[in-house]
Amino acid sequence: MTRSGKEYLESLRDGRVIWLDGERVGDITTHPAFRNSVRSISELYDLARERPELTADLAGTQIHKAHQIPRTKEELKAKGRAFKIWSEATFGFFGRSPDYMASAIAGFATVPDVFRREFDGSRNIVEHWRRMATNDLYQAHTLVNPQIDRTKPPSELEEDDLCLRVVQERADGIVVRGAKMIGTAAAFADEMLVGVTQRMAPSEADYAVSFSVPVATPGIQFVSRTSYEGRATSIFDYPLSSRFDENDALVTFDNVFVPWERVFTYRDPLACHEQFWQTPAFVSFVHHGAIRLWTKLEFLAGIAILIARANNTYDLPPVKMQIGKLMAWVNTAKAVAVAIEEGAEPVPGADAVAPNREMSCAQLAIGPDLYPKVLAEIKLLAGGGLIQLPASFRDFRNPEVARLLGKYVRSPGHDAESRTKLLKLAWDALGSEFAGRHDQYERFYHGSPHVYLPTLVREGDPETYAALARRCLDGYSLEDPI
Fold first, then answer.
1. Distance between CA atoms of residues 238 and 427, nearest Å
2. Runs of H (alpha helix) within 26-97
3. What is the reported pLDDT for 199?
4. Per-residue confidence (pLDDT) for residue 36, from 0 to 100
5. What is the mean pLDDT of the chain?
6. Helix (H) or strand (E) run with residue 213 in it
7. Are residues 265 and 317 in the same domain?
8. Are residues 118 and 182 in the same domain?
9. How far apart are alpha carbons 329 and 324 in whole angstroms?
10. Which pLDDT score, from 0 to 100, does residue 458 have?
């Protein structure tokens, strides 16, 4: 049986070290900067217990479908439907919900031979997958080195532990020190996968390691960014940021001990890279991300439709054009998500299928391109209504202010309160600090353009396209008559 929301909340009271605004956070289940967001995650766990289509059987244990290794295209599609249900529960705003990394870990375990190198982590990764799945644990990850000097490899920076590295090898494990950035939702998780995705030179072997440890492991500290939940005056004023702020943090490691059984790759730059690309792990990331983005764009298009109706402009031809454009973009995102599943490919050397690789790489480019366009179009549609909003819910509790709002902040079929409620939701999705973070986040969701666009060429089939054009060129010459 998958764990309950209550069990998840209880697991967070483990002494994890989180810093926010210069103070150490105590119990994140009650702290005003985190409590609503972790409650939203707990509701996902409860939803999994209520909806049978969210679970699958693993050797007699019910696990969340995200942990499942899909053996057929139909199982992959069922996994996608489970992603959709959880995405709709958070309106697409939890990019790193528990099912995200769960699917990637299943991808690692699909081809454990990739981890069988000079250091053999193959058994470790399979046991880790099984433990995470059967205990329904929340796996986060942090893979990005701090942006200190991107012109130099980690070993050439002014201090050798600015990026996470192995500093000691022991009979029972390793000791690591340094930092990783963009630990999204890591402060809310049970465990954290630590690694690297970029190719590194053999000289960077000390930095080429991947492992998973509990987030409360001694020596691990989180330095949280601003809590949008903590800044929210009320759910009415900030309905998204007050409940779905997944948080991002700098993660530091001060001589953290990692047992050998938790290490997956060790001092092996090639293995660190190939664990994502020679297994279905990375395309599993993208499968989840594609469905979540599709859901998020549906939600944003829905906001646009409600605003147009509230403004009594929905039936105007120019507005219908704007709505049509948004719906076209939504269906583009949907088509990519569907194609990723319909093009499911067999995994070499395994009795399993994986999301389509070329369509997954296409999604890397399509998502960051569509998201800012959708935001810009809805802002044009909403106009000044997004700016001229009451400061907070307290205005409606003052009879004099409420009287003024009731007279001047309304539209056909919408009184002042319902209209303000709608536009507050729109602003939190489009223009608040929370919204700004999501705009930036979606642009770099699976990496930078200089990384993912060449990936599409590498992992795609450019020769087929070139051959089609070449066939046309070869079909005529200077001597051919008109």
1. 8
2. 35-50, 73-89
3. 86
4. 98
5. 96
6. strand 209-214
7. no
8. yes
9. 9
10. 86
Count how many Cα atoms sit within 13 Å of the Cα of residue 10 in the half-sphere of its side chain.
Answer: 5
Answer yes or no: is 480 within a domain.
Answer: no
Tell me which amino acid residue 75 is. Answer: E
Q: What is the CATH number of the domain that holds 16?
A: 2.40.110.10
Instruction: Dump strand ranges (E) for 118-199.
Output: 139-142, 165-170, 173-180, 191-194
Same domain membership, residue 178 and residue 288? no
For 53-107, write each residue's pLDDT tens digit: 999 999 999 999 999 999 999 999 999 999 999 999 999 999 999 999 999 999 9
**Gyration radius of the chain's alpha carbons:** 24
| SS3 at position 25 | coil
Residue 226, pLDDT score = 97
Contact indicator for 419, 306 with CB cutoff of 8 Å: no
In a domain, 235, yes or no: yes
For residue 481, the model assigns a pLDDT of 84
Start-to-end CA distance of the chain, whole Å, equals: 73
Does one domain contain both 146 and 162? yes
Same domain? For 272 and 302 the reply is no
pLDDT tens-digit profile of 434-448?
999 999 999 998 888
Distance CA 132, CA 474 (A): 56
| Mode of pairing for the β-strands spanning 191-194 and 209-214 | antiparallel
Domain closes at, from 245, 277, 309: 277
**Which pLDDT does position 265 carry in this prediction?**
98
What stretches in the chain show pLDDT beneath 70?
none
Residues 266 and 317 in one domain: no
Identify the domain containing residue 380 by its residue range: 281-465
CATH of the domain at 305: 1.20.140.10
